[in-house]
Amino acid sequence: MINVTSIGKGFKISRLSAQFSIAMLLAYIPAAHAYTVNIATGTKAAYLRVGDGSTTGGFYNAGGTPVDNTTVNLVSVTVPAVSVGNTVDQAMTGTGRLTSDYDGFAFCAAGQVYIGAFYRLNSTANQSATLRVTAPTSLTNATGDTIPMSQIRWTSSGNGDTGAQPIPAGTFSGGTQTLATLLRNTWNESCHSFIYGNDAIVAAGTYNARVTYTLSTP
Description:
The chain is mainly beta and 218 residues long. It has no helices and 17 strands. The radius of gyration is 18 Å and the shape is elongated.
């Protein structure tokens, strides 16, 4: 959601747990807090967390187990009337838990959205899972005014990380986009910071859209 004295725009991010007729399991990273790590083979399982997530029994490294979480996290920005359409990027603020389910490490900074995904197989077969996001073409306010989703982009990082992110930076284009291909028996995570381009003068209001992240396996 986004409010503006003279203009507004915003969107919601929905968390989707990729669930199959198999157990769900979340693994993270060792104490070094790298952005990706190999995990042991085991019963076929997949897990996706965007923003908030839940576990039972404590952190994963202490025997905890991920469970479904239906929270829809929000990313928003308020654009002051004097700044509407001045082409100056506006940082958006996300909601959702910032800590790892592996050991509680504060992997993301305030305002970022945590995205983590895991695909486990009981073999070392060369298979991968695909992380995608689906978004509408525009954000819309109560009177039908729109802002193109392409006005929203994101950067990718993680506290203590070095090197390329497994879930890289990008821009919404509307429709379904592939974000990453994740090798089996690895856990991957990144923290996304969303930005509104503010490139056009639009009518005042609160603009909303919902995007859905999906993890698909072979």
